[in-house]
Amino acid sequence: MPAPLYPVESSPDLPTHADVVVIGGGIVGAFAAYYMAKRGMKVALVEKGRVGAEQSSRNWGWCRQQNRDARELPMATKSLDLWEQFTAETGEVTGFQRCGLLYLSNSEKELEGWARWGEFARTVDVKTQMLTADEAAQRGRATGKPWKGGVFAPTDGIADPSRAAPAVARAFMRLGGTVHQGCAARGVETEGGRLSAVVTEKGTIRTKVAVLAGGAWASSFCRQYGIRFPQAAIRQTAMSVATGGKDIPAALHTTGVSMTRRVDGGYTLAISGRGRVDPTPQLLRFAPQFLPMFQRRWRNLAPGGLEGVRSGHEGWSRWRLDKPTPMERMRVLDPKVDASVVSLTYKRAVELVPELRESSVTAAWAGYVDSTPDGVPGIGEMSSLPGFVLAAGFSGHGFGIGPGAGHLIADIVSGAEPIVDPRPYHPARFLSSAWGKVADF
User: Fold this and answer.
1) Cβ contacts of residue 164 below 8 Å, gap of 6+?
2) Residues of 154-171 as b/e, b for ≥16 C-beta within 10 angstroms?
3) Residues 220, 314: contact at Cβ < 8 Å?
4) Closest CA to 93 of 34, 32, 27, 159
5) Most distant CA pair in the chain, distance
6) Residue 302 has pLDDT above 70, yes or no
7) Model pTM greater than 0.90?
8) Strands 178-181 and 43-47
9) Three-class SS of residue 139?
10) Per-residue confidence (pLDDT) for residue 244, from 0 to 100
């Protein structure tokens, strides 16, 4: 079974004009549309498949500050507040709660790293608690195992990937926005050197601004207009189990396996960082820029197969605006599950929490985590195409920081004071090397 996802009803008619068109209905695109609509803008959100159907519903659901890279931490902190505000303002259920995140370890090196991050966190007023062996054993009592130590991040939390993006899309529509599913954006038109329209498979929308929140498809879309956006997708597998365990923490991370409670009471299980790299034309083209990243992550990565080629999101072709595109042939990226990872994940989870032996596997799925060379997203207007705003490459962090990213995009488009400093995110940095700049996460 695939990752669960709540449905959203599409708007009946595609508008002929809009102030902004958002391309991509994941969590970032949905929040960007929501915050722009709150400012009175006429916004249309177009999605080739279903709202939230790709990585926005296939992630762990963590909304964290803990262990964030310094460049992303301000956005992560703002996002936690915005998750709460969204629920209060709209009444929509995203599953967000500040349950705290628990990290347990028997590695002195890992604990030392967490302690160093904790020292940094205190300089920016972020709460984090290093745990002694006794404290770790108490908080992790569901494991029934001794631990050398751990970390508890009390103000961090989780939300439900099956509900969040659809909830934001519904709130956006109540503000007057329109959502168009099964409607791929084939490309853009220009006048006088700047963006003038978005061409979709169902018609053209005249607009001066387009936000590309296309996830793993972003680089191939940018290539159509001579924009070089280095992006690589890592194929990762996760699963869910049904359990009624009362002592299992809502969010637990260990080197072996991580667990997140879902709204339905079940748990999502995954192995942090474990994934496959599918060889594709795009990957080969950008491989030199990703050497620093792969050097840091190679222990968790394995060679993939032809899934990336089959999916079509990392091709090197150009397409026409009057013909079907690769995005119409692959409405939702739903790659093959790595059965060996499912087996290993469940085995490790049962070893970690014996109570899970009584649980049943309810689903398993795979998804593509779109990464940049430094592991930090690219957000900003492209100088070579005025009116075209990129918001992609969230490197597995997009769900948690989705509200902050959406707010920043709205700030950029409207000219408002940005919620966080936008400079660390601007795509212009990809013109230089990522050596020494890869995010710690």
Assistant:
1) 27, 52, 56, 61, 94, 95, 96, 399, 402
2) ebbbbbbbbbbbbbbbbb
3) yes
4) 159
5) 67
6) yes
7) yes
8) parallel
9) helix
10) 63
